[in-house]
């Protein structure tokens, strides 16, 4: 594989505000994790607002793409190995200052952290989401072609804000007209997998469902009842995806131990021959 190490562990986590998450246990999680790469979304902080215990941790290299609109969005990537290339945005005039995408190169591997807009049915926010999806699909096509030509692999981690299939959310029947599970959104995710050629790594390892869910509303007893959505994905090029060995949602043991309404999604890849 030639990617960073013989075994590579990648985590993606929407932190729902890095400053609040740090107070609730994220810092302890970061200290304990064995991940080589951690992709963060909804950081909601500028570089100088990120807690020192996150920004200046020994052994990590941090790249942040903060949103121009203060207190909104924001994505970051933490890597144990210094990146050979850093990129903020994906070449979009509309979205490159909105804290929605950041990317780094490591040996043999490109890693992206994505926070796709959540949208809201019948509003301008949904129109924005659809514009983003259209532009980003074009970028994903370019990224895969670039990696194929260079003999590299890629993984785009993050909060995609779309549940692709019925097994990706608990209450799918009542959400068919809601943003995140609209037919056109689900079709777009299918296009990413079936036409552009990426692989949903977690679904490949857990083909039956339900879930594993990665987000539960803070309202009601969604977490206690496991009434969740699977909207946090690791979307990889086929060569890397077929080297995935484990995929785990690091679900908190109880509601009071959560440091976000999302849970980290962690995948371990190894250098063994691809599994059929």
Please report the distance between the alpha carbons of the first and last residues.
16 Å
Q: Which fold name corresponds to the CATH topology?
A: Deoxyribonuclease I, Chain A
Helical run tally: 7
- In terms of DSSP E residues, the strand content is 15-25%
Q: Major sheet: order of its strands?
A: 3-4-2-1-12-11
* Most strands sheet: 6 strands, mixed
What string, H for helix and E for strand, traces the elements in order?
A: EHHEHEEEEEHEHEHEHEE
User: How much helical structure, as a percent, in the residues?
Assistant: 10-25%
Mean pLDDT: 94
Total number of distinct structural domains: 1
Give the low-confidence spans: none
Structural class: alpha+beta
* Number of DSSP strand runs: 12
CATH top level class name: Alpha Beta
Q: In CATH, what is the homologous superfamily?
A: Endonuclease/exonuclease/phosphatase
Radius of gyration: 17 Å
Indicate the overall shape.
Answer: globular
Active site: 115, 159, 262
Family: Belongs to the DNA repair enzymes AP/ExoA family.
Pfam families: Exo_endo_phos
Binding site for Mg(2+): 14, 42, 159, 161, 261-262
